[in-house]
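queue> pop job 88
queue> type: inverse folding (structure -> sequence)
queue> payload:
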């Protein structure tokens, strides 16, 4: 099962996602496996309905808000890259990551990016 997920993700794509989101190789592979198991249409994207089939989200009073976080306004599908970018907002920043590349782009899970994402939803 895990080997199937890693063969479907190209190494360069995995490295780009790793760099962009801060997730480890094993985390990305595990999340890709989960993503593909949720993709009932087998088209490489998830719909709102795919998310609503997750029992924990279906019973969660904030489930709709959590699901909406994955879909930019006007979009009804999310690909794996978008899925990972959204999940990265919830990943805590580790102390050793804060000082990595001061000139590089700010991590997706930084305080300002989290606030920016929230502002976009309410504009």
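queue> result:
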């Amino acid at each position: 099962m895990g080997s199937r997920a890693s063969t479907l993700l190209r190494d360069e794509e995995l490295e780009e996602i790793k760099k962009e989101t801060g997730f480890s190789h094993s985390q990305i592979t595990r999340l890709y496996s989960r993503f593909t198991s949720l993709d009932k249409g087998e088209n490489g994207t998830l719909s709102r309905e795919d998310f609503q089939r997750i029992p924990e989200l279906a019973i969660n009073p904030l489930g709709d808000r959590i699901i909406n976080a994955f879909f930019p306004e006007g979009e009804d599908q999310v690909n794996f890259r978008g899925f990972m970018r959204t999940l990265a907002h919830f990943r805590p920043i580790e102390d050793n990551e804060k000082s990595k590349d001061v000139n590089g782009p700010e991590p997706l899970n930084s305080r300002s990016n989290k606030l920016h994402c929230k502002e976009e939803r309410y504009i």
